[in-house]
Write a structure and sequence with these properties.
Elements lengths: L5 E5 L7 H12 L4 E6 L2 H13 L3 E7 L2 E7 L17 E5 L9 H17 L6 E4 L14 H9 L3 E5 H6 L10 E3 L1 H10 L1 E4 L1
Parallel strand pairs: 1-2, 5-6, 5-9, 6-7, 7-8
Antiparallel strand pairs: 2-4, 3-4
Helix pairs in contact: 1-2, 3-4
Length: 198
């Protein structure tokens, strides 16, 4: 009989990215265990399956009513022999507004909350995140994003907000994380590094 430990992650009632994040936490803490993740929607099923396969798990899916049981067996689907994730040492994110995407700002603000949760859980972090225009509202004391951005700063991500932008929105004295920078420093950095604009 196998002595392999089996762990269950019951995330029924949760929407992505939570099922993936909770499965990843168990996987990181127990790399040799068989993980059974239970979800109750197809999007979460598909995303957990992709996560498992990307980590080299064999993934077996069983449906029971509206619930999906994903049994992930380690080392059953080996991925390339890379011990460490790709280093993005000079990757810079330029935040330009306080919501993600175009179209509905309400949806964009909800997506932004999810973005910061996912950024915290990602294996690879950017080296710097710059905030310009209305995105500076995310690094002030009453921001719903402040806690997650502070955690990124604690992990070594450089956080910097545009001083002119903070002045424009009247929130310079409310800066809750990171430091104040200027457009020259931001421009100099984004011209020299790999930049992602959001």
């Amino acid at each position: 009989m196998s002595n392999t430990k089996e762990l269950t992650v019951d995330v029924r009632g949760s929407l992505c990215p939570k099922p993936v994040i909770e499965t990843k936490k168990v996987s990181d803490a127990n790399p040799s265990a068989v993980i059974i993740t239970i979800v109750d929607n197809e999007v979460s099923r598909d995303n957990v399956e992709k996560f498992g396969k990307s980590r080299g798990y064999g993934v077996d899916i069983r449906q029971d009513g509206k619930d999906f049981y994903l049994t992930m067996t380690p080392n059953a689907n080996p991925v390339a022999e890379i011990c460490e994730p790709m280093s993005y040492g000079n990757r810079v994110i330029l935040m330009t507004k306080d919501y993600l995407g175009e179209g509905s700002e309400e949806l964009g603000r909800n997506l932004m909350k999810t973005f910061w949760v996912c950024m915290l859980e990602a294996d690879v972090k950017p080296s710097k995140i710059y905030f310009i225009n209305s995105s500076v509202k995310m690094v002030v004391n009453d921001s719903v994003h402040l806690e997650n951005i502070k955690k990124l700063a604690d992990l070594g991500v450089e956080i910097a907000a545009c001083g002119i932008c903070l002045d424009y929105y009247g929130v310079k004295e409310e800066l809750g994380v990171g430091n104040i920078t200027n457009m020259y420093a931001i421009t100099d950095s984004i011209l020299g590094d790999n930049i992602i604009k959001l």
